[in-house]
Amino acid sequence: MKKRLACRLALTYGLIFIIAVAVINIVLIFLYRSNQLQKNENYYMSLCSVLSSMAENNIRITDYIDTGAGFTDEKSGRVLLLDTDGKVILDSGGEMAGMHLTNPEFREASQKGIPAAGYYILDEKGMAMFSHPVLLSGRVSAVVLVSVYIQDIYDDINRFAKQTILISVMVAAIVIAASVWTGRRLSAPITKLTAAAEKISEGNTGTNVNIDRNDEIGVLADSFNKMSSELQKIEAGRKRFISDVSHELKTPLASIKALVEALLAGKTDSDECREYLGDVDHEIDRMSSLVSSLLTSARLEETMLKKEPLVLAEEVERVIKALRPLASQKLILLHNTCHHGVVVNADRNMLREVLINLIDNAIKYGLEGGYVKVECSNGIFKVIDNGCGILQQDLQSIFDSFYRVDRSRTGEGGSGIGLFIVKRIVELHGFDISVSSTYGEGSVFTVKFGDMISY
Ligand SMILES: Nc1ncnc2c1ncn2[C@@H]1O[C@H](COP(=O)(O)OP(=O)(O)OP(=O)(O)O)[C@@H](O)[C@H]1O
Ligand SMILES: [Mg+2]
Questions:
Q1: H or E, element range at 130
Q2: How far is the CA of 431 from the centre of ligand 2 (A)?
Q3: From atom 7 of ligand 1, which residue's Cα is the shortest distance away?
Q4: What is the position in ligand 1's atom list of the atom closest to the CA of 389?
């Protein structure tokens, strides 16, 4: 099963926090414990030291010890004075006098002559023992031993530990709850995006997500929505393109079929027969021109641009040479005023495709006996004709695929894909194309070649 991102985040944050708090707790409790015990040890060690110096200086300590040495009873502690054999000489509690002791603290003080401290659990209660040697002429002559119950210190440490742990558990609970909330807040938009992406993969292009955030996720959601609507446009374009192509092929096919059926019926004389075959030939020409335009358009998307510096005037001249017979049929004059010093950085074949389409259109929709001018100045290339012109309402659509202005107005007609290819090539090169036209007077197609060099 997939782990939810929110759980992962909560778990990670929670675990990191718990480990950190546990370490802090252990350190705090340890420090508090050693601090409390050290304070106690310092106090009783100095008491031992004072008593041993009293003994060393022959100051009577008998009365002090006999009267309890400051301890209320033997349950709180006692002070003992032992000889070097461990025999109790004096006991603040009274009843241990005469007994022999051999505990490690006594041995440390009597044998090594150094003070010592030890901690024990007696009857489930904590106690500490401190010893200090009494030195006479540099030799250990007796040992002061203080034993004290320190259960209250242990109780205090336990209380401190419990309180610290309790506070930590409470804070950990708050932190875990906060990280669950943060995790949910972070993962909610991702869940939304995933659901929307799944919808798109099922074919529902255009699915949007509504995420109003001012951070990277908000930016991601915006990009996602943009991508989704782009996909929707592409999908709609693809559908429209397929239906346009089918339609474009259906019409000439239907017309060819009708003509062939008429021929097969055999009711036509030889002149009619020739006329019908001519029509069939024309339809086949139209279809093959459409198919080759479609192939060009499809190839555009997959071929890599091979940009090279091209002398614009030469490229225009080549195209004009190829189209001159077409222009002659309509008695149209072709002028090329491009300067030979103008060099364009473009793909040769694609540039040729652009020039052919623009000049071919200018001739096709040009005026009988009119002119077509190709000029280039100040980085701007123009194809100008004085033909039928284009109505304002058609201007923004002529670059769409299969868009043709009403043939009854233009008199001529192709498949309506030429300018679509031109626009695509211009876009691929990063150039710009625009058109201006006055209906009945003529049109001007303008291309701005981005990196045109003029000498
Ligand atoms: N110079 C022009 N003068 C007037 N109308 C034009 C001119 N150039 C293009 N048009 C109009 O724009 C339409 C689209 O042109 P486009 O070149 O895309 O298609 P087409 O010439 O009809 O067919 P083809 O795919 O064979 O080029 C044309 O049908 C025509 O009506
Ligand atoms: Mg054309």
A1: strand 125-136
A2: 19
A3: 361
A4: 4
